[in-house]
Design goal:
The chain is of the alpha/beta class. The chain contains 8 helices and 7 strands. A 7-stranded parallel sheet has the order 3-2-1-4-5-6-7, with helices on both faces. Helix 3 links the parallel strand 4 and strand 5. Helix 1 packs across helix 7 and helix 3 runs parallel beside helix 4. Bound molecules: nicotinamide-adenine-dinucleotide. Nicotinamide-adenine-dinucleotide binds next to helix 1 and helix 5. This is 3-oxoacyl-ACP reductase. InterPro entries: NAD(P)-bd_dom_sf, SDR_fam. Keywords: Oxidoreductase. It comes from Pseudofrankia asymbiotica.
């Protein structure tokens, strides 16, 4: 597959999970991923997405090389509830999940030609009142950032879209209690966790020319979890206790 041949795509959070799957998918599509993460490796450069100076240094290192795509996968969760969350943890979650993508877009948009594509990674939590309030507010903010950036950059032919993963098996969800996993999957009509590759394939579509008229969109990749608005529990309960109606006699 060569859908991204000749294109340089910057991927944050590329050391793990969804970011690593996106970087691999970009490579498989003939593109050149530049992976960034605070956990560097031979294939991933060191960068803390919260640090504006590091973004400036990275952009300068590119030395005018065009950037055709950006995927902001770096993120953290913080599962404190409303009454427990401390300001420091709250702001750090915003710094990684919201300020990070903002700084990335600001640093790299000037290097993007017309036709470039930015994909932010939001969350199912951005579509609901999910209990971990620092994470949820940060992901709702990612939606706002994506829409504002889509409007701001459309005049230069740069598209910005958000992808909202549901429960995906990665290092992040591996730290969640089993109850969290079970309750999340019970709300997922497809009845299973997603794989990082299933998010990456949708990101790849948004990066490519097949999505050339798509901007300011939000695409859930969540096995249907956001589509029923809580009605799955009602449907499941009724199905379990279902008694067929007595047929009405034709007489
Ligand atoms: P992950 O923990 O596997 O990967 C996240 C990566 O981000 C890690 O490699 C980590 O080192 C990096 N990172 C964290 N803070 C950073 C910083 N300050 N600077 C640079 N890199 C940093 O998690 P994942 O599940 O692959 O998550 C990727 C994105 O998808 C996140 O934004 C997450 O909120 C979102 N998401 C995940 C799920 C899920 O179920 N896994 C669901 C919805 C949304």
């Amino acid at each position: 597959m060569t859908a991204l041949a000749g294109r340089t795509i910057v991927v944050t959070g590329a050391a793990s999970g969804i970011g690593a799957a996106v970087a691999s998918a970009v490579e498989a599509a003939g593109g050149t991923p530049i992976g960034l993460d605070q956990q560097p490796s031979a294939r991933v450069r060191s960068l803390d997405v919260r640090e504006q100076a590091q973004w400036a240094a990275f952009a300068a290192q590119l030395d005018g090389r065009p950037v055709h795509g950006l995927v902001t996968c770096a993120g953290i969760t913080w599962r404190a509830r409303l009454g427990d969350v401390e300001p420091e943890a709250f702001w750090n979650t915003q710094a990684v999940n919201v300020l990070g993508p903002l700084l990335a877009i600001r640093a790299l948009a000037p290097l993007m030609p017309a036709g470039a594509s930015i994909v932010t990674i939001g969350s199912l939590a951005a579509l609901q009142g999910h209990y971990p309030v620092a994470y949820t507010t940060s992901k709702w903010a990612v939606r706002g950032l994506s829409h504002a950036a889509a409007l701001e950059l459309a005049g230069r032919g740069i598209r910005v879209n958000a992808v909202h993963p549901g429960f995906i098996d990665t290092a992040m969800t591996a730290t969640a209690p089993q109850t969290f996993r079970d309750a999340s999957l019970a709300q997922t009509p497809l009845g299973r966790a997603g794989a990082p590759e299933e998010v990456a394939s949708v990101v790849l579509f948004l990066l490519g020319d097949g999505a050339s008229f798509v901007t300011g969109a939000e695409i859930p990749v969540d096995g249907g979890a956001s589509s029923h608005g809580g009605a799955k529990a009602v449907s499941d309960a009724l199905r379990a206790s279902y008694v067929p109606p007595t047929p009405v006699s034709a007489a």
